[in-house]
Amino acid sequence: MDGADIVVCATNAIEPVLRGEWLKPGAHVNAVGSPRPNWRELDDAAMRETLIVGSRDAAMKEAGDVILSGASIHAEAGEILGGSVSLDPARTTIFKSVGIAIEDIAAARLVHDRYKRRNE
After folding, report:
1. Which domains does the chain have, with CATH numbers?
2. Is the distance from CB of 38 to CB of 68 less than 8 angstroms?
3. Which single residue of 4, 63, 67, 108 could bond 59 by disulfide (Cβ 3.0 to 4.6 Å)?
């Protein structure tokens, strides 16, 4: 994972398996696993990064990564895709999904397009 621009976590971990200290500035993490209020994939350091969720309501009910870390949610994916909230491209971003498939697809497109622009 050293130097990775994009990291995907899709586990059934109960304890964090991804540490924020492992992420380079500007990386993006899609965290799509551990969908229980008492399970976690990401540690507190990762959760202090710019956090995007599919739904604030769903994340606060289902995402142990968000609930147990006390993380501050920067935006919902729809707010970013709609242009009402922006992202700092130098900051590491975390997308915590709890299973809203259309938003997962849209988030993947956003990351892909951002990656392509950075490497043109």
Report:
1. 6-118 (3.40.50.720)
2. yes
3. 63
- Across 36-73, b (16+ Cβ under 10 Å) vs e yields eeebbbbbeebbbbbbbbbbeebbeebbbbbbbbebeb
At position 113, the amino acid (one-letter code) is D
In three-state secondary structure terms, 75 is strand
Calculate the alpha carbon distances from 64 to 26, 45, 46, 47, 97 in Å: 24, 14, 13, 11, 11
**Cβ–Cβ under 8 Å, residues 13 and 33:** yes
Which token pair is 75?
């935006």
> Is residue 102 within 8 Å of residue 57, measured between CB atoms?
no
Greatest Cα-to-Cα distance within the chain, rounded to the nearest angstrom = 41
H runs (alpha helix) in the chain: 44-47, 56-62, 64-69, 77-81, 101-118
Q: What is the value of pTM for the model shown?
A: 0.80
